[in-house]
Design goal:
Layout lengths: L1 H4 L20 H10 L1 H11 L6 H22 L6 H15 L7 H12 L12 H9 L3 H7 L3 H16 L4 H15 L3 H25 L5 H10 L5 H16 L3 H9 L5
Helix pairs in contact: 2-4, 3-4, 3-5, 4-5, 5-6, 5-13, 6-8, 7-11, 9-10, 9-13, 10-11, 10-13
């Protein structure tokens, strides 16, 4: 909910407009998010007291697919949060494992370990992201999770905390975190809609705005993204996951970021 309401976001649904989407709206995104509450609660419940395993991976996958059904029912068949169900489901499960008391680094490691187990039903539905991943040879959502979310660990979380430390308001700190993701992520949503040229354009323009330290160019960037039908949906999913992780241990994570993470922005 906080991800979709973050404004202004380039090419994405927010409180100002629907970005590069003809079939999405802020109302639909909110409705979809609310429909998934029970899904994530169930994932947390079955994960508590356990550790990564093949059986848990398949249980999570079953609940995730049931969540997708709830999402499509709420949205009238529109895909609003399929990618977020994957990423958030793994992270919610990891956060709830054992006694539910983990550092962010441990949560990411547990999520990655879980993601590396096979799902016997994973090949039934071929998504747009999977097709883009195969066509362009990029990491994709599955690879991102299996590698313990390197773009969250090394890019979005450090940027979020660095921006706060520099005195930026929370909204601006989160927008910096999003731009940092767009500028480096091989976003399969962008690749699917516009190919490699659109991805390189999105990375370049996001990095340019980020390098200025100011966000005055976001409105024009949104217009450019809309003109080229660019929507960084993969980056939006990772931003939502970043905001979730940020809430888990607000005191310890700051020290962890300062001690362990480096960022060149």
């Amino acid at each position: 909910m906080e991800e979709v309401e973050l404004t202004p976001k380039p090419g994405l649904v927010d409180l100002d407009n629907d970005g590069s989407h003809q079939d999405l709206s802020i109302h639909l995104m909110r409705k979809s998010a609310l429909s998934l509450q029970e899904t994530f609660a169930r994932i947390a419940y079955i994960s508590h007291g356990r550790s990564p395993s093949l059986s848990l991976r398949r249980e999570i996958a079953t609940i995730g697919r049931e969540g997708e059904t709830c999402m499509f029912k709420a949205t009238g068949g529109v895909n609003t949060h399929k990618g977020a169900i994957w990423a958030m489901g793994l992270l919610v499960s990891a956060a709830a494992m054992g006694t539910g008391s983990h550092t962010i680094k441990e949560v990411l490691a547990l999520a990655g370990e879980t993601a590396r187990y096979p799902d016997c039903h994973s090949s039934i539905t071929v998504t747009n992201g999977m097709m883009a991943q195969k066509k362009y040879g990029v990491l994709g959502a599955r690879g991102e999770a299996q590698r313990e979310f390197p773009h969250i660990r090394n890019v979005s979380l450090p940027m979020l905390h660095r921006s706060r430390a520099n005195g930026l308001p929370e909204n601006e700190a989160r927008l910096h975190s999003l731009l940092a993701l767009i500028s480096v992520l091989d976003d399969t949503c962008i690749l699917h809609r516009g190919g490699r040229g659109a991805l390189l354009f999105a990375k370049k323009r996001s990095a340019e705005i980020l390098s200025t330290g100011r966000l005055e160019g976001l409105d024009s960037l949104n217009e450019e993204f809309m003109l080229h039908d660019i929507s960084p949906g993969g980056s939006a999913d990772l931003l939502a996951a970043t905001l979730f992780l940020d809430k888990l241990e607000p005191n310890r994570i700051e020290a962890e970021v300062q001690n362990a993470f480096g960022c060149t922005y």
